[in-house]
Amino acid sequence: MIHGLHVEVLLALGYASFLLAIAFLLELVARRSHKRAHEYRNGGFIYFRELDYWKCPAGSQLIRLHTDPHRRMASYRAPASVCNSCSLKLNCTDSNEGRLLERRLDLWIESELRRFHRGISVTLLVLATIVLAAAFLRFSWPNDRMAVATLLIPLAIVEFKLFPSLRLAALNREML
Fold first, then answer.
1. Which residues pair with 34 in a beta bridge?
2. Residue ending a domain, choose from 106, 125, 148
3. Angle between helices 142-175 and 112-138 (to 10 degrees)
4. What is the C-alpha R_g of the chain?
5. Per-residue model confidence as pLDDT tens digits over 31-46
6. Which residues contact 173 (CB under 8 A, 6 or more apart)?
7. Half-sphere exposure of 40 (CA within 13 A, CB side)
8. Are 80 and 167 within one domain?
């Protein structure tokens, strides 16, 4: 026993904390990766949400052409005449029909990649819960149970808040 706790309880707490840290880091990395990919794909272009158009680095407007409800994407295009006479065209597009941008209609939390990463994070959290629950049931000393419950309760709250985003993904797949 160390500080009134069984060694196995300390190991369970350490392992569960490690899994929590990995899940948290995965969420951060996934969010940053999504943001960087979006910025790279539309680099130099500014989106005006209120008016629903993009503005290119040369000042031209890309207006919405159409919306694909199945892919949850909106397509925007600049006028071909403006793009073809633009001095930035070589660095912007090789199309003679004008620059085309696509914008996801889903929020980051609803995107497929986000749901994939969220699924991995939730799996890690469930594994941590199983480890802690086993330690809670195995050891009956009050100090052991109190230490496990101190981590198990907040973990259960986090899982409870994350599970709805996974159910939303399943419902969206069923509707398609």
1. none
2. 106
3. 150
4. 24
5. 887 777 766 677 789 8
6. none
7. 6
8. no
Residue 66 lies in a domain: yes
Domain count, the chain: 2
* 46: β partners: 55
CA distance 120 to 130: 15
pTM of the model: 0.61
SS (H, E, C) the chain: CECCECHHHHHHHHHHHHHHHHHHHHHHHHHHHHHHHHHHHCCCCEEECCCCEEECCCCCEEEEEEEECCCCEEEEECCHHHHHCCCCHHHHCCCCCCCEEEEECCCHHHCHHHHHHHHHHHHHHHHHHHHHHHHHHHCCCHHHHHHHHHHHHHHHHHHHHHHHHHHHHHHHHHHC
Q: How many angstroms separate the CA atoms of 27 and 61, rounded?
A: 34
Distance CA 133, CA 136 (A): 5
In tens, the pLDDT along 115-161 reads 788 889 999 999 999 999 999 999 888 899 999 999 999 998 988 88
| Owning domain of residue 148 | 7-35+111-175
For residues 134 and 9, what is the distance between their CA atoms, to the nearest angstrom? 10
Do the Cβ atoms of 60 and 80 come closer than 8 Å? no
Would you put residue 101 in left (φ > 0), alpha (ψ -120 to 50) or beta? beta
